[in-house]
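Support reply, case 0932

Customer input (verbatim):
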Amino acid sequence: MTAKRILLVGVVAAILAGAGLWRAGLLPLGPKAPTGDEAAMPPGPPGPPGAGGPRPGMRRGGDGPVPVIVAEVRRDDVPVHVEGIGTVQADATVTVRPQVSGRLLELGFRDGQDIEAGQVLARIDPATYRAVYDQAVAKRDQNEADLRNARADLERYERLAKSESGSRQQADTQRAAVAKLEAQLRIDQGQIDAARIDLDNTVIRAPIGGRTGIRVVDAGNLVQASDSAGIVTIARLKPITVAFTVPQQRLAALLAAQGRGPVPVEVLDGDRRRPIESGTVSVVDNQVDTATGTVRVRASLPNADLRLWPGQFVDVRLTVDVIRAALVVPSAAVQRSAEGTFVYVVDGETAKRRPIAVARQDDGRAVIADGLTPGETVVTTGFARLTDGATVRPTTEKTEAGEPSAAPAPTATPAESAGKGRRPPGEPGRPREPGTPTGPAGGPRP
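Our regenerated output:
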């Protein structure tokens, strides 16, 4: 009797446990209904027991040729550049200061105006300096009259001395008086010249042509010759200069290029793609800075369109040499690994990995020293799924700027789309993995 009770208790416990598992969604009572992409797949023969891969007829994202963008290996002349960061400086800068003191009557310019050399910039009250000039002229005229009289007396004394009617000493004394008055006239002329200079300095003219800055004083103020701030600053912007430094390792190449002729210099725009101004190197400093290991260089540029402004930081590029008929590929084609540099060469529809030797490389293209021949085709975009010997679908599309465009991403299958992120509203759910708990309706339980 005891054994029957024990068996009955075990059966009841099993039934209760099964009901709990069914409510928890851990015990499906029948085959699950196909949902989402499983319902849309065509029927196929069942796979071997335990196979977890996709059924025949399902599309896998890795199948098919790899889409890539390719470029041709070609020969071209490649310039050798030296790049740096420079500071734009005015070709000449002058602070206009008054050379005499006085009240500023008027200004003959506007702030930021382009002016010519010799143009009147300001006028200072000239009354005091004109009076000094007139006084010096009058003093000279007075001494000239005395000199004429002294010369007449000297002539009479010399005649009397020759006829023994007068004293020779008197003639010599008169000769000394004439010499003294002649010297006084030279002093008077010097004073007149100094007074004329001061009078002329009351009119302030532009020493150079250029563009004025912001004026320091206004008309009506009293200005002094000792004012360090001056009246205004003039900067010559056409042409303009750029000062920068070059590493001492590139100094030999720069000097060799300068020996062959003018060294071209380009100032690049913000994205370092296009030159906004071109010129030549005007001077290389005569020593290397021992603290930085660089040498200072200055270049002169026309700046006809005023694209450069003093104080501006710019990217500078010098062309010190040109490699003729170099073998070049786009820099994007060059890949690197632990074994070294390599490219994928496309032969028909097959991509083969090939090691190469790179002589030079910049942002745009690479000069190949060994490993490629002209006319071959290399991959520039689409390396994510690319392997040695893979089948590819090459294209040669280019953007407006001439750079290869990005390869189109492979189209995802419905199953792949459903398996990435949250399912959009109204889209069928993705297939459940074997053993996924379901509710009474066959769908996933919360």
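We compared this against your earlier run and they match. Two observations from our side: The two ends are 45 Å apart (CA to CA). Residues 111 and 214 are 5 Å apart (CA to CA). Please reopen the case if you see a mismatch on your end.
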